[in-house]
Amino acid sequence: MSKLVALDEIQAAQQRIAGVAVRTPLYRLERARLRMAKLAEPEFDIYIKAESEQPIGSFKLRGAYNMVAQLAPEALKRGVITYSSGNHAQGVAYAARALGTKAVIVMPDNAPEVKKQATAALGAEIVLVGPASSERRLKAEELAAEFGYAMIPPYDHPYIIAGQATCGLEIVEQLPGVDLILSPVSGGGLLSGTATAVKLASPQTQVWGVEPELAADAKESFDTKTLVEWPVSKTVRTIGDGLRTQSLGALNFEHILKYVDGIVTVSEDEIYAAIRIMLSVTKLVPEPSGAVTLAAALFHAHELPRARKVAIILSGGNLEPHLKQRLEEELAAN
What we know:
Blueprint lengths: L6 H11 L8 E4 L1 H6 L8 E6 L9 H9 L4 H6 L1 E4 L3 H13 L3 E6 L4 H9 L3 E5 L3 H15 L2 E2 L6 H17 L5 E5 L4 H13 L4 E7 L4 H8 L7 H4 L14 H10 L2 E5 L1 H14 L6 H12 L9 E6 L6 H13 L1
Parallel strand pairs: 2-10, 3-4, 3-6, 4-5, 7-8, 7-10, 8-9
Antiparallel strand pairs: 1-2
Organism: Granulicella arctica
Cofactor: pyridoxal 5'-phosphate
GO molecular function: L-serine ammonia-lyase activity; pyridoxal phosphate binding; threonine deaminase activity
């Protein structure tokens, strides 16, 4: 087994990213507003950890900055590279700009246009490849070897895990007595980090992952205790573009097996419903990948442990404008 991230490393990351990443608020989802939306009222209070309010609109800034900030000066001079469908791309680009270095980002050609544009606006050089997560990783490794760029992986690294873990540490600080925390899961950076921080700081709190049924490689891996990989032809089917990674990272999987209590999946219809609900009853804008936790809380409570206080991580708010407009028009028509 690899060395797992320790609490003091997470606390050090918390200090390192302070002033760059935001200590995001935790909003209570008012039950009365759910009743007004004609939804069944849950038996627990829901609190939304709004990572959509990070400077890049997603939690990914935490891990990216934590890793880039620890590079040696000579590595910073050469520049950094990563592979990402969008949010980690922006995190690395933002961190690189803040620290005065070049960023090269390998992105899939089917990444949302809003994420491509945001990454370019941060000054990064974008290289487009096919939709497979393995394809963009291989291209990034090839460019790193050719030009000497420092690789900033999207999830499978202790510095990334420690950075994302600060989100979980904030939740237990902000909501004493939280019973259950729900985190999206794709490559596993956020879930592994959150679960590690929470179990080390608040062992009684349950931590569960949530992913789309159409990209449920993490649940299969967790249930079988064997790291599996799904083909891109399957994972690309989900609207949750940030959750299409074909497999958990190896180090993330080790943390998940040790600290995570369970993983639940949600349907595409439930993801769309959760986006609509959040748009209608809160002032928050969720991207599909960030809405899966609300979908789990509202539609899969029977699969989750009994709880009074449930915190759900809204991992990102980079919703495609055309999709946002369509959903808002549907809400207005009802």
